């Protein structure tokens, strides 16, 4: 560092890609009551060259850790035999630590944070540099990993389901999460992991997660937790669990008897009544046809004529004298004279008499 009249100069000798990044500064007064200024604006430094691909990075345990727990951050490179790895912590960015790893085919390094404290929360990245015969080239900075820590001072959130925890397939539900504070970010979890995240409205301490036309796949246990917007890496403990049970209409566990069920029952009763009326009509019609056929098929009793020259007359039959003369040809001018011959027969009962 070189002191100037109204500032300072920080020279970088033999710059490499390791020196790339954003820079800012501040000043402090050592005289009297010490105080420091706010951070300056940032400037970016880019080193021209062909960088190596970015390394992979991972953190364990993944999620929210508690104070005093150990944390492992691994950074891997695959481009050179002897890699020098660097771990960075952002907000504000500064070099946390570095380690030289020597392996014949690849570099592999794990950074241990032992007995983690709240100030070690935040965003972490890593990069590696490889030394060639004439120069040192560094990789692109890795993706981010977050270290979120549980803040024991934050109250436990609450969770509830509307309209109820047992619902039928295809309905809409709302899962509500809340806490005593306002200006919060809520995160909803089930057994598979993070489901959704949502901020509360300004000056509100409750948020709603809406699900429309739910399916059987959303059944399970749900919980939520939160952090304040201004402190994104200090999290509350999780809420109690609520069990969401979605049932199909065929199971009929929570489905009340509705209008559809009543309509189906009424239709079935109407169809049955029509079938009964149709059956009664057919039986009545068949009976009437039977009576008519019997009347038509009844035989007509006539005298039985035998070749022996006698007439067998049935019992209880009364015969009357009939004239074979037509009434149309009868002459009224001569009542005492008959035209043509007429055959008369006498009435007999239960007798056999010879033919005339």
Description:
The chain is mainly beta and 356 residues long. 11% of the residues lie in helices and 37% in strands. Strands 8, 10, 11, 13, 14, 15 and 23 form a seven-stranded mixed sheet that branches. Strands 17-24-22-19-20 form a five-stranded mixed sheet, with no helix packed on it. A three-stranded antiparallel sheet has the order 7-9-12, with no helix packed on it. Strand 13 and strand 14 (136-138) form a beta hairpin. The longest helix is centred in the last third of the chain and has 39 residues, at 259-297. It is elongated, with a radius of gyration of 55 Å. It starts with a strand and ends with a strand.
Tertiary shape: elongated
Order of helices and strands: EEEEEEEEEEEEEEEEEEEEEEEEHEEE
DSSP helix fraction: 10-25%
Estimate the strand proportion: 35-45%
Structural class: mainly beta
Low-confidence spans: 250-260, 302-314, 322-340, 347-351
Q: Sketch the major β-sheet.
A: 7 strands, mixed
Q: What integer is the average pLDDT?
A: 75
SS element count, helices: 1
DSSP, total strands: 27
Query: What is the CA-based Rg, rounded?
Result: 55 Å
Distance between the ends: 169 Å
Tags for this model:
356 residues, mainly beta, 1 helix, 7-stranded mixed β-sheet, 5-stranded mixed β-sheet
Q: How does the SSE layout of this entry go?
A:
Layout: E1 2-3, E2 8-9, E3 21-23, E4 28-29, E5 35-36, E6 43-45, E7 56-60, E8 64-65, E9 71-77, E10 82-89, E11 94-102, E12 107-113, E13 122-131, E14 136-138, E15 145-150, E16 158-162, E17 166-168, E18 173-178, E19 184-190, E20 193-199, E21 206-211, E22 220-228, E23 234-235, E24 242-247, H1 259-297, E25 304-305, E26 310-312, E27 352-354
Parallel strand pairs: 8-15, 15-23, 17-24
Antiparallel strand pairs: 1-2, 3-6, 4-5, 7-9, 9-12, 10-11, 10-13, 13-14, 13-15, 16-18, 18-21, 19-20, 19-22, 22-24, 25-26, 26-27
């Amino acid at each position: 560092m070189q002191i100037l009249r109204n500032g300072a100069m920080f020279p970088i000798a033999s710059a490499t890609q390791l020196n790339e990044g954003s820079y800012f500064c501040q000043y402090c007064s050592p005289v009297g009551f010490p105080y420091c200024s706010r951070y300056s604006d940032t400037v970016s430094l880019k080193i021209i060259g062909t960088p190596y691909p970015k390394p992979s990075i991972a953190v364990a345990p993944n999620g929210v850790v508690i104070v005093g727990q150990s944390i492992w951050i691994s950074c891997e490179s695959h481009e050179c035999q002897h890699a020098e790895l660097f771990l960075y912590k952002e907000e504000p960015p500064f070099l946390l630590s570095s380690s030289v790893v020597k392996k014949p085919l690849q570099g592999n390094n794990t950074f241990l944070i032992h007995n983690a404290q709240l100030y070690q929360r935040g965003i972490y990245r890593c990069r590696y540099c490889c030394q060639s015969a004439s120069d040192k080239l560094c990789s692109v900075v890795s993706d981010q990993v977050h270290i979120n820590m549980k803040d024991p001072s934050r109250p436990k959130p609450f969770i509830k389901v509307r309209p109820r925890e047992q619902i039928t397939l295809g309905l809409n539900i709302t899962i509500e999460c809340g806490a005593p504070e306002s200006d919060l970010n809520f995160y909803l979890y089930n057994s598979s992991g993070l489901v959704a995240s949502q901020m509360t409205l300004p000056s509100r301490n409750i948020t709603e997660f809406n699900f429309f036309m739910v399916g059987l796949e959303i059944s399970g246990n749900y919980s939520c937790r939160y952090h304040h917007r201004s402190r994104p890496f200090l999290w509350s403990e999780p809420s109690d669990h609520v069990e969401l049970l979605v049932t199909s209409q065929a199971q009929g566990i929570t489905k009340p008897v509705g209008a559809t069920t009543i309509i189906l029952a009424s239709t079935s009763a109407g169809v049955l009544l029509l079938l009964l009326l149709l059956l009664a009509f057919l039986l009545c019609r068949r009976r009437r046809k039977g009576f008519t056929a019997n009347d038509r098929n009844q035989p007509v009793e006539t005298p039985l004529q035998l070749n022996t020259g006698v007439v067998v007359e049935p019992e209880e039959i009364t015969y009357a004298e009939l004239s074979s003369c037509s009434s149309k040809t009868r002459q009224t001018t001569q009542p005492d004279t008959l035209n043509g011959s007429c055959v008369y027969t006498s009435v007999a009962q239960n007798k056999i008499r010879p033919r005339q």
